[in-house]
Amino acid sequence: MRAKLSYTVSAIVLVFYFVLVGDRGVLLIADGRPVTVAFGVAVLVLPLIGAWFLWHTTQFARQAGRLGRELEAEGGLPVDELTRTPSGRIDRASADAVFARRQAETEAAPDDWRNWFRLAVAYFDARDTPRARKAMQRAIRLHDAEAAAGPVGAAPRAAEDPR
């Protein structure tokens, strides 16, 4: 809950910043002189890139949360079995051992989004955030493909007559 609140506050502050900077960019463009128009366009690019990044990051977090809730409902969330240092940090050897197990599970069933979700958590625990994100993106793609295909063993739906 704390992470969600922090993310929300950060997103609100960023949107406020985007509005302020965007307003200044519009004012520079409205001035009409070539130099201020060029600066105005340059100033508008930053909030546009930031808004795009914020949108995609928020979508990723929502999709990962949806998968986490579904996996929790199935009883398949990974159990926290990591040992921690006295300061509360995850012990590297413990994270490596759990990661090796999760990687073997994923290699054994590479088309199961659940394994990719658990592997993403193991990457995150091992402090490899870029690979954690890629593994979670793979889990999301596999989950969405599975959902689009329908339940396993279900007969394909007949196409409806458009007449």
UniProtKB/TrEMBL annotation:
It comes from the Bacteria. InterPro entries: TPR-like_helical_dom_sf. Gene3D superfamilies: Tetratricopeptide repeat domain. The chain crosses the membrane at residues 7-29, 35-55. Keywords: Membrane, Transmembrane, Transmembrane helix. This is Tetratricopeptide repeat protein. It comes from Actinacidiphila reveromycinica. The lineage of its organism: Bacteria, Bacillati, Actinomycetota, Actinomycetes, Kitasatosporales.
